[in-house]
Write a structure and sequence with these properties.
Layout (H helix, E strand, L loop, with lengths): L2 H18 L4 H16 L4 H6 L3 H5 L6 H13 L3 H9 L2 H7 L6 H11 L4 H9 L11 H16 L4 E2 H16 L4 E6 L1 H4 L4 E2 L2 E7 L2 H9 L4 E7 L3 E7 L14 E9 L4 H9 L2 H13 L2 E4 L2 E4 L21 H7 L32 E2 L13 H10 L4 E7 L11 H17 L4 E9 L10 H5 L3 E5 L8 H13 L5 E2 L17 H10 L3 E5 L9 H10 L3 E4 L11 H10 L13 H9 L3
Parallel strand pairs: 4-7, 10-11, 11-12, 12-13, 13-14, 14-15, 15-16
Antiparallel strand pairs: 1-3, 2-4, 5-6, 6-7, 8-9
Helix pairs in contact: 1-2, 1-6, 14-16, 20-21, 21-22, 22-23
Bound molecules: 2'-deoxyguanosine-5'-triphosphate, calcium ion (2 copies) and zinc ion.
């Protein structure tokens, strides 16, 4: 685990432990905030902390003297004394109980103090003997929810990559759309926000026949367990269908799907609420209150004073509710795309922002054929790219060091270049460019001699091996590749695989600055297992003014469909089309590529 991830986790854990031990609100929040900032920080915090550089650490927005001190302590001693002290106070089992969905620190604290719950088994015990009901605000329904959460925790594990969750959501949306009475159905939650991994799938439905929708939902193919079946919310656990790929099958795993039955008249308010994020929702409600209104999942209402009951239950007409657009408008804000609803500064926007969309992409600059480890011929890949309306496709098979991926020796690459040029002459309506995905070797040198690199129209340089290197070494390695005059794009810069491999943690600010200096584009690899650059890196690159390239890294026909995930990641980084080279027209793109030859 990288230092930054580790530190971020420690601060988040400390925040929870402080809350459990009755620490003051300010410290609880400060630790939670530090955790987020450390996770997203672009600088090499480990190096700064090792050097004891308080000044450089506190120069990072959101990091104060206290946090800096703890980071230094962690880097120099391997732990934080405050964390050790808290661990001595809070049993590990209590933290496990806190990990159960739906249980917050307040409740867990009560269970611990009043019922001696120090493990998930203890919790099961007080549920079994009914004594859990003696706790304040604890009813049969809540207990039932806790039980299903425990069952879920025990049977399943971590978050699902977006590509898998999307398949599940599409299946349910299509199925529910066919149920008589359905007027609208859509997925919401983190999936709609294009987050790289998804905790559960959220689906919204408006229907004249809620019973039919509920029945169809809980009895559909693959449902393993019904977790809740209420008037407005149903939850199930479903098997994940056939998603075998070169990343291995997800077969055998399961995911929770929540269905919410909402009124069509307030569809927009419901969609807005259940799309989240929670943090964005909080900001919107604060804004509403500051304008003398209240916002909930039924609509935006005028604040009518002291009556604490929800306005819609008293027949109060909403100011806006039918569409998200109407609600943002009434809040005096531009429409915020779902991918930007993360409380990362979007509340300060005063003008609409036109972030990149799927249709803006006109070129694929990273693709593999049967010449290395792909499954398509040049012709097959070209046909798909053309059908998508692309004007350019770069064929970039692996380089010689990637032996397992069938990397091309120099003589084979020379022949392959000829084959691509020949195919380009033969195939109408799209430009095929010979290129290579050249390994960035561990020392930062590239995997072919310069004269051969020069003969390629497109060079994507990517790290494949040595992905456990220390941040400093990783930074050096990437900087060297960026500075090479033949390189156009750095492919999947960190090499991480979501939920599977952490990859490199270079100093992103340095990488971005070098990319700008050398006019090199940084890739967003669209494969849902990669999404590399990730959203926060994209945001930093976009703000600094670096060029971005969104590619599918195609190995088989279906990989072209991953483009949307790269685009969503771009949106999450506030990427506008003009900053992405794949949106440029042919003349501009080809001119830019040639400028490096
Ligand atoms: P996930 O499932 O962990 O990937 O993340 P989300 O964002 O899909 O979260 P989820 O499924 O718990 O809830 C979906 C949305 O519903 C969430 O983004 C905002 C809204 N929501 C759910 N629970 C709450 C809540 O307690 N407070 C607020 N303000 N919003 C909530
Ligand atoms: Ca969710
Ligand atoms: Ca949910
Ligand atoms: Zn590749």
């Amino acid at each position: 685990m990288s230092f930054q991830k580790h530190a971020s986790d420690l601060f988040s854990t400390m925040s929870q432990m402080l809350e459990l031990t009755g620490g003051d609100r300010f410290r609880v929040n400060a630790h939670a905030k530090a955790s987020r900032i450390i996770k997203d920080a672009g600088a090499d915090l480990e190096a700064l902390a090792k050097d004891g550089d308080v000044k450089a650490l506190t120069a990072i927005e959101g990091i104060g003297k206290g946090t800096a001190g703890k980071l230094i302590e962690l880097a120099q001693t391997g732990t934080i004394s405050e964390y050790e002290e808290l661990c001595a106070k809070v049993p590990a089992g209590v933290m496990e109980v806190l990990g159960i969905q739906g249980l917050g620190p307040k409740t867990v604290k009560l269970m611990w103090e009043q019922k001696g719950v120090e493990s998930v088994d203890d919790l099961k015990g007080i549920i079994a003997d009914g004594s859990i009901l003696e706790l304040p605000r604890m009813g049969a329904k809540t207990v039932e929810n806790i039980l299903s959460s425990i069952a879920f925790l025990e049977s399943s594990g971590s978050r699902l990559p977006i590509g898998i969750a999307q398949q599940v959501a599409d299946r349910f949306v299509a199925m529910l759309g066919q149920v008589p009475g359905t007027s609208r159905v859509a997925f919401a939650g983190s999936l709609r926000r294009g987050q790289e991994s998804i905790g559960d799938v959220d689906i919204l439905i408006a229907t004249d026949d809620p019973d039919a929708a509920r029945e169809a939902f809980i009895s559909s193919d693959g449902v393993m367990q019904v977790l809740a079946k209420g008037d407005t919310k149903c939850s199930i656990r479903t098997a994940i269908g056939d998603s075998a790929s070169r990343w291995g099958s997800e077969e055998g795993s399961a995911v929770q799907v929540d269905l919410r039955i909402v009124d069509e008249s307030c569809w927009g308010a419901a969609l807005l609420y259940f799309t989240g994020s929670k943090e964005h929702g909080v900001r919107l409600r604060q804004r509403a209150i500051s304008m003398g209104m209240t916002l909930n999942e039924y609509g935006l209402f005028e604040d009518d004073g002291s009556d604490p009951s929800p306005p819609q239950t008293r027949g109060v007409e909403p100011i806006a509710c039918a569409s998200e657009e109407a609600i943002y408008l009434a809040l005096g804000m531009p429409f915020i795309p779902p991918t930007m609803r993360e409380d990362r500064g979007e509340m300060k926007l005063s003008e609409p922002i036109h972030v990149i969309e799927l249709g803006d992409i006109k070129a694929e600059l990273h693709s593999h054929t049967v010449a290395s480890d792909g499954k398509m011929t040049i012709e097959e890949s070209a046909a798909i790219a053309k059908a998508r309306g692309f004007h350019t496709l770069a064929i970039t098979d692996h380089s010689q060091s990637s032996a397992v991926a069938g990397g091309l020796k120099p003589d084979r690459l020379r022949k392959h270049i000829k084959a691509v040029r020949e195919a380009n002459g033969r195939i109408e309506g799209i430009t095929l460019l010979p290129g290579s995905e050249v390994d960035i070797l561990v020392d930062g040198t590239l995997d072919y001699e310069d004269d051969l690199l020069h003969a390629l129209d497109v060079v994507v340089a990517s790290p494949h091996a040595g992905l456990r290197a220390k941040p400093k070494q990783a930074t050096k390695r990437l900087l060297k590749a960026i500075a090479h005059p033949c390189v156009h794009i750095i492919g999947h810069p960190t090499g991480r695989l979501i939920e599977r491999r952490e990859g490199l943690s270079p100093d992103m600010n340095e990488i971005i600055a070098a990319a700008i200096e050398h006019d090199v584009a940084l890739e967003i690899n669209s494969h849902w297992m990669r999404l590399d650059l990730r959203d926060t890196h994209v945001r930093a690159a976009v703000e600094a003014g670096a060029l971005i390239s969104i590619n599918c890294d195609d190995h088989q026909p279906g990989d072209y469909d991953n483009l949307i995930f790269g685009v969503l990641t771009g949106q999450r980084g506030w990427l506008k089309p003009e900053q992405c080279i794949n949106t440029w027209d042919a003349a501009k793109l080809h001119g830019w590529l040639k400028s490096k030859r």
